[in-house]
Each structure stands twice: as structure tokens, then as C-alpha cells.
Amino acid sequence: YQRRVMGTSCRIKMVVLSFHITTVSGNGVFTRYFGPMQAEEPYRKAEWDRALYDLLAEYPDLTSQRPEVASLGNRIVIFMRLADMMLFITGAGEDDELGLVELLNCIIESLKFVCGGKTPTEVMLLENYAKLQLVVDEVLHDGIVETYNPANVINMIQMKIRSKA
Fold this sequence. Notes:
Elements: E1 2-5, E2 8-11, E3 16-23, E4 28-33, H1 35-38, H2 42-55, E5 68-72, E6 75-82, E7 85-92, H3 97-114, H4 122-127, H5 129-139, E8 140-141, E9 144-145, H6 150-164
Antiparallel strand pairs: 1-2, 3-4, 3-7, 5-6, 6-7, 8-9
């Protein structure tokens, strides 16, 4: 993600606090915490998971597959419905919503690739769980965004799959 500052472009370090994939009914499919949220007590993480799911009640029309932006405390949450799942990215309050949306789009495009070019579903992601982990690892290193380009993620995944073959 790049931002123009006085005629020059500069790289903005964006830190993600958590990434969640749940079913529409709130059952966890994949969760990864980063930074300060990673060190929190399990009950705090459970409270956060519940807060994310409760957030959906404020958005009754989540049938469209477009990202929504919400604020929970001092954190920004970008979330959207994807097939039979909900995807959530949590950023610190100072993070740029557009950067988080771009990050979510990168993850979705990368997941489509690992699911054979189809829109991922819960079953597809569970069948490709190792590749789901690879996607998240390639995009987010300890919560720091490594790339917003799905082509880069796909290339890295293909190289790793070839090296194991």
C-alpha cells in the first residue's frame, strides 16, 4: 500500500492485530492473532471473537460481498461475507481503512487461487487448510503486511508447493 506524501510515494507499515474466518453463524474456521492481541489471555480473545460476531447484528444486510468498516473500541474492523463465511481483519485505530480493505481483497484473490479459481467456501478452505495458512503467512508476517499483491502471494505459494514435490 502506498500513499503520496508531498509528491513522493512512501511505504506505510500497516500492522494487523487479527484475521478471522467464521461461518455465517459464527463458528470459527480460521483465526490468527498478531502483536499485542497474540499475547492476550484466552478469555480476552474469546471476548473479542464474540464482539466480532455481535457486530454482525448491526449489519443485517450482509448478503452483498462488499467490505464493511466498523470501529470496536480503539480498533478498526474490516469484514465481509464471502460465500458461506465471514472474513474479519482487525487493525489498530491508526490504520488506514482503505489499506485494510486492499489487504482483504489480496487475501480473497489468493484464496480463490488455492481453491482452483472458485470463490472459497468453508468446505474448500478446510480441504485446503495448509494452503490457507500459507496465504496468511505470505501476506502477514507477525501481523506486518508483506504484500497487497495477490500475484506475489500466488507465486510464493507455487514455489513452495513445487519445492515440496
